[in-house]
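Quick illustration for those who missed Monday's session on complexes.
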Amino acid sequence: MRVTSRFARHCAVLTAGLATAAALTACGSPTEDDGTVSIVASTNVWGSVASAVAGPDAQVTSIISDPAADPHSFETSATDTAKITDADLVVFNGGHYDEFIEKAIDGKDKRTVEAFEQRTDKNDDNEHLWYDIPTVAAVADQIATQLGEVDTAHAAAYTERATTFKNQLIGISTITVAIATQHPNAPVAQSEPLAHYLLVAATAQDKTPHEFQEAIEQETDPAPAAVAATRDLISEKQVKALIYNIQTQDKITQDLRATAQAAGIPVVEVTETLPDGVDYVQWQTANAKALAAALR
Ligand SMILES: [Zn+2]
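Prediction with zinc ion bound:
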């Protein structure tokens, strides 16, 4: 049952979170006030964006780094909460995605950068904003502004690194523009509305039935008819690719994947958090390239 499996996963996330917190503490706590500017990010995705701007002038700690974790409904340990409340700057997603941050800073006068507030399309409520390159650019600028206020001596360096980072983002947009030009309005399906903004940038049309996505978002079991309709999209090859979140798999989505493989439909794997060994730009460049390859 979907609800049970998701809750079970959240418990696993909690355990993983504790292990991560312990690992981070072992690597040196940023909460000791040694004068170094400290940034806490909700996930290693926003942590990577923050690191690109911080460079050697500030220390970044990400609360969620486990690639097997699902940040939705994550709950913090006391250690995590202390890290968040002690940070000079808190960088998070917002839009009910990483509510553990909002809980930790509630009632406290914290300096924050919230991606949801920076989003470029205020009419779009999809919370997976790190797939939206213009929003990520705005977040990088905000991080530079906030760090420059905390640490005026390095203000110019923060701004310079934000500019370098934004120039790297252009490379990602170049790939999605090429997809939009070469394969406009390509029909695709998604196991979850995770890479929504990547698809928007590439003008790919998400054909997944609204009912199916709604159920997945609400963490309930989709109606059998919605599951069947989604399955048919794939088995009847009405879509050119399946965008697949490997971090929130269950029987229904695994069946979709198997259906895609049997039908010869390319599967583009996406995640909520940053995979090991890559930074934000490398990761999103690879995601855009994978979509381009699937639609070719
Ligand atoms: Zn999600």
